[in-house]
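Progress note, project year one: complex with 5-hydroxymethyl-3,4-dihydroxypiperidine.
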Amino acid sequence: MQYGYFDDEAKEYVITRPDTPTSWSNYLGSTEYGAVITNNAGGYGFYKSGAQGRFMRLRFNSIPMDQPGRYFYLRDMESGDYWSASWQPVGKPLDKFKSECRHGTAYTKITSEYEGIKSETKYYVPLGQTFEYWRLKVTNTGSKKRKLRAFSYCEFSNQWNTTQDQVNLQYSIFIVKGEKSAPNMLRYSIHENLYIQHQKNPAINDYMSEWIALAGAPMTGFDTSREAFIGTYGNYKEPAAVLKGECSNSEAFGDNSCGTVQADIELNPGETKEIMVLLGIGDANVEGKKTVEEFGTFERADQEFEKLIKNWHSKLNSFSAVTPDEDINHTVNMWGLYNCLITFAWSRAASLVYNGERDGLGYRDSVQDILGVSAAIPQEAEERLVRLLSGQFSNGGALPVISKDFEAGKQKMIPAEKFRSDDCQWFFNAVPCFVAETGNFDFFNRVVPYADKGEDTVYGHLKQALLFNLERMGKDGLPCGLLADWNDCLKLGYHGESLFVAFQLRLGLTTYADISKRLGKNDEADWALSERKKLDENIQKKCWDGKWFIWAIAEDGTVYGTQSIEEGQIYFNTQVWSVLSGAATPEQMKTCLESVKEKLATPYGLMLCAPPFIYASRDIMSSVVYLPGIKENAGIFNHTQGWGIIAEIMNGNGDRAYEYCKAALPATYNTKAEIRQSEPYVIGQTTYSTYSKRPGNTRVSWLSGAATWNYYSITQYMLGIRPQYNGLLIDPCIKHDWDGFKVERRWRKMNLHIEVKNPSHVSKGIEYIEIDGKRIDSSTIPAELLKDGSTIIAVMGKNALPVENERM
Ligand code: IFM
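Model obtained:
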């Protein structure tokens, strides 16, 4: 079933049926002032933090799942009929109510047609501002004059700490006050000793008050008390004030509050009128007044909208492609990168699933997030990377979460058993990617503090990351798994050994050796390569099981992920990382990737392991708590899909890489939305596998490491435009029957036009490249040959040039 389509030209996803299988959401705003909005205008708002700054309420995991939100109710004042400008919450029958929702770059537009009235609502937060616009345009498409009344509605939190707001009602309700503060303005304040809040979290709770203003029409009524507007036994579908036809001008005082302004709109046939609501944080008499004075006209609102679009589109234009596959085009040209940018902004903190309990930057995921955004926002990527590097302790391990009030140099060392084994190994993906993107090789010499004490160059941080694991090796000479490796459900015991981290460490040692040589530190390079040699020997001694690599070795010596064990017999990560790290011999690579295909591939993506755990000890495989076929228990963990694609690309199998890519690609399910259920334009953390009862269902949209690896594997490996320290590598690995593809790529401030031609229909291999008409016989184009506007033509064929890949 299909509920919408991609409009790549406008950079929008257009939902044509509002009764989507789950709420399909979008994000507005920035990390200062953020918002989630669904295709039915459900959602919430937050200032800096979904947990501590939640000023607008959504009732999570409720029925329906996305209420309340940002609503406009419309009432025909003559017939008494009423509806909402989004299909929900009133939910008029769909044979009478037509609706379209366009989710775009940090804005959402919902148009509806009902009983001769067309409405268009547009929601966005202007760049750099802490308020939002809700614009409502209403057109009379009928032949008689209409008298309408519009009511806005949202629910403000009683307390910006979301847990307090939801749970601590004996306190939170009794601090709320709402009142009319000017002819077109409502003021909400929290009667609390604000300085206590400042003490708790000065960075966040610096407002704890909101305002809402109406522009374009006089305010003919209002409600600030939720109970007054909705009615004690009312609901969002039938709010008392809308039923009655007027607000009661309620002033909340120890009540739940709501944001309702009332406006009257009379329309002659064919006539259109517009009103808008401005809603923001701060004091109505200060921030509210100032904002309305500056931004309260339609002209200014239009300008702000243009600015917003320009800003987002410029980021998205850092990479665009025309390939023979439309689903890949939708992903590359808009949604893949947009998803990475939103994930980068909010980490795992705020969505329809993440309710704010995960505040701050989860270490390992945030380091990986750098891969997806380095080309689009190199400066922000650099700031984030430095912050993450400074979250590394001087012993080489990392803080599990970097909180908002984190200060480098002042963190207390965490207990030994709290360290994860993989956290800092992700540096060896993120740092080289960032340096190759920007060309700033001197970044390796930049001095960055440690979390607890002391400082070192970035290069020094990399060495500490290696030492951290090398100093914590188990009895088989593999790195200890510690609290967890990438897999949060793996509890091997402190001295249990993780083969996944062994492969990461191998990649780290290779990368470090390469960087050392470039920095003229040959002794360091030799050291790293000799450590790698020892590690390789240990891997080969203990970890090859004949058809695939094992999973891990628990502290008690039990080997997981072997043919002789029934549950979790084969583990995906260690197969693909054996390839990514270069540890697998060519023979092992072929064999273990065949095993992946045979045992783990499903039509919906690659399972994390198989068969699922049912009887395993929860103390070791805590994934056993999940239903079979879901999440870490033999589910399709979308974070890992890109690794499968890259491994097959390293194996030279473009057709299979394409098959894997398409199986897990959200856009593939645009015409099969009933299977995937989640938004076909964004990634989800987990897809239920064929071991489950509902294979293909996908959950936890938007914020996931899947975003980065999906986008990165397609752009840098499948399309193969991969920056290196000294040049731009063009090394695609595509479905063999593609004739080629075109890419516009921004690299080091140059806009490059790249065309890859594939006349011989190979999957991989560049025969030659022409740059502005000049032929070179290398698949890496030296940076000095490129200039802004350069045209690059790369011709694929059987007589392939060797590939000198300097980084993963
Ligand atoms: O790697 C983790 C991630 O950090 C949080 N979500 C689950 C993943 C796999 O366990």
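Residues 354-471 form one domain.
The pocket of 5-hydroxymethyl-3,4-dihydroxypiperidine is lined by residues 362, 364-365, 486-489, 632 (CB under 6 Å).
No further modelling is planned for this target in the current period.
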